[in-house]
Structure formats: structure tokens, C-alpha cells
Amino acid sequence: MIGRLKQWMQGGAGPQAAAEGAELRVLMVCMGNICRSPTAEGVLRDRLQRAGLQQRVAVDSAGMLDHHAGEPPDPRAQRHAALRGYDLSAQRARAVRAEDFSQFQWLLAMDEDNLSWLQRRAPPGNAARIELLMPYARRFAGVQAVPDPYYGSAAGFERVLDLVEDACDGLVVRLQQELQSGSGGKPY
User: Fold this and answer.
1) Global pTM value
2) Catalytically annotated residues
3) How many domains does the chain divide into?
4) CATH no. for residue 120?
5) Which domain, by its residues, includes 36?
């Protein structure tokens, strides 16, 4: 417990990310872990709770870079998320770690740059699924990336939420199928 608390204080996974006994683990990944991936983490947590799966699926987020390690999500991301009922305030940024490839069955990238970065860093024999988040979307089918809103206007943060909510709805359906099949997150 002390080790997990220390890790959280240094920008590592929060206590809720570990979800003891979770059958599946999902890691959302963007560049700095302050806008898109924490938003995706917060939305997916909400959707899993609504589906009654919060004890069976653990969610965390991380970034390609460690520039913001230990920082909360961007205030604009928090503000726009809060307007839709998501509380991101307890999250802290962290960088992707080598052990994430063995601790998470799903590493979901926000865009192609994040995806190729993860694929290049995956260890040989990696069993985790490394994919884009957006192919799980239904209303925004065909949109491949969640655009980075960091240098844009408020509309960019709203767009991120629209895309992420849709993709997380589809992802929850897929996770339910995975849990029902009993594959326990093992790749096909």
C-alpha cells in the first residue's frame, strides 16, 4: 500500500487504476496525459460504472512524454469534462512505462502518432492489444483520431468529449463481449 501511494504521489497510477481483481485492464494513451487520455479515462470509468463493470475492468491513462508527470489534467479538459459530469481532478499525469505492456491487455492510442510510438516500444512477444480508440465509435464511424485540443479553443475540448464518449460507448460493448467470452483479455 505504501508503495502504491508513493507511486501515485510521483505521478503514477492512482489507487483506483489498480482495481484489485480486475479481469481486464485498459490504458488510454496520448502525448502528455493532460488532455485526451485523462478525458478518455474519465469517460470510460463512467461508462463502466453505468454498465456495472467497474470492478471487472481497470482503467488508467498515460502519455508518451513525461513533461507533465504528477500534474492534474489541463484545467480546460477538467472544466469541459465537469460540464458533462466527469470529474478528472484526482488524476495525475504519468508517462507510459515498460511494465504497462504486461499489466494492461489494451493500450488504446488517441491518434496515429501515439499508436506508432506504442508499437515501436512494445517488447518482443508483447501480448497487449495496441490499437486506436476511435474505431470503437459508432456515431463518428470513420474518424480515426481524437485530435489534440491543447493549442486550440474550447470547441476542441468539446470535440474530444464528443468523440471519446462515442468511442467509449462502443468500447464498453466490446469489453462486455470479451468478459462474456471468458478470454480474460487474452489476444485472439
Assistant:
1) 0.88
2) 30, 36, 148
3) 1
4) 3.40.50.2300
5) 2-181
